[in-house]
From TrEMBL:
Pfam families per record: Patatin
PANTHER family xref list: XYLOSE ISOMERASE
Species the sequence originates in: Flavobacterium microcysteis
Species classification: Bacteria, Pseudomonadati, Bacteroidota, Flavobacteriia, Flavobacteriales
InterPro entries: Acyl_Trfase/lysoPLipase, PNPLA_dom
Record-given protein name: Patatin
Amino acid sequence: MSKKIKILSLDGGGIRGIITCVILKYIEEQLQKLDNPNAKIGDYFDLIAGTSTGGILAAILLYPDSDKKAKYSVETALDLYAKHGESIFNVSFWQQLINPFGLFNERISQKALERQLENVFGNLEIKDFTKPCLITSYDIFHRKAKFFTSHEAGSDLENFYAKDICRATAAAPTYFEPANIKSLYGQEFTLIDGGVYANNPALCAYAEARKIEFSKVLDQPGKKDFPKISDMIIVSIGTGQVLKPYTYRQFENAGKVKWIQPLIDILLSSNVETTDYHLKKMYETLGTRNRQNYHRLMPSLKNASPEMDDVSSKNIYELIQAGLSYIDQNRKELNEIAKKLIKNS
């Protein structure tokens, strides 16, 4: 009997990706406890999708060691966010003075982000990822979605440096400048954060999985090729629910400038919710057992800031606490996910 195809989908959310790391760290610890003391979560999924901060995390989890297994644990990714987040999102006093609220230029310099990505990934190519990936971005020149897929990167036309695709998926408008990158073939792209259309990339991951010949790509004869929804386990993790209310009185005479930030917030949140709605409805068409194979993990932010670039030590602490609180309240489901990953490995 064929094993289920296991898909991990990671939302965007800037520094709020710390919450995702905390939840994944717990699942990884259960895998170590129940299956292998050296288990790394990247080895237990067949496809990992990510947008923005989720795309960077996906690339870290798929970084290969010398045996083509996952090199890094979730804790390594958590360290990257917690220790280096401030340098990535830091805005100097001078920048604030000449560019208040990001009105005239992007709010954050991309140099620190690019430096950290270079330190982590070096010249790693996505064709060398341990498993298939789907990392989102948007091509603002050709005006279409751009997906980075490691399983289709055998040709230099579709092969990229990992550091470049991470720079592209994280290029959130008003935060970072667009990414200007090239494939290994030399084709140039001007890209921004995939969150403009898929801040929750789970539905994109489902569509991508439908066309993958997993038994061949993973060199595992028991894997299901071109899987249907009933053949998939999808674990989709959000970076904290943002439900800031906006009143009619606040916006009855609002102009373009006043609408910029609320509109970004609303578009990101509505995309996340719509994707979750569609997947829930798709799984509801299945039998009793299979409909339980969709897991949407969306924590409350608790006392953490909804801002994607709040890297104060207090907020990083609160983000970690929000993740721990979610684990405490949802331990049964998280343990069940770990058991499913083991059973279908």
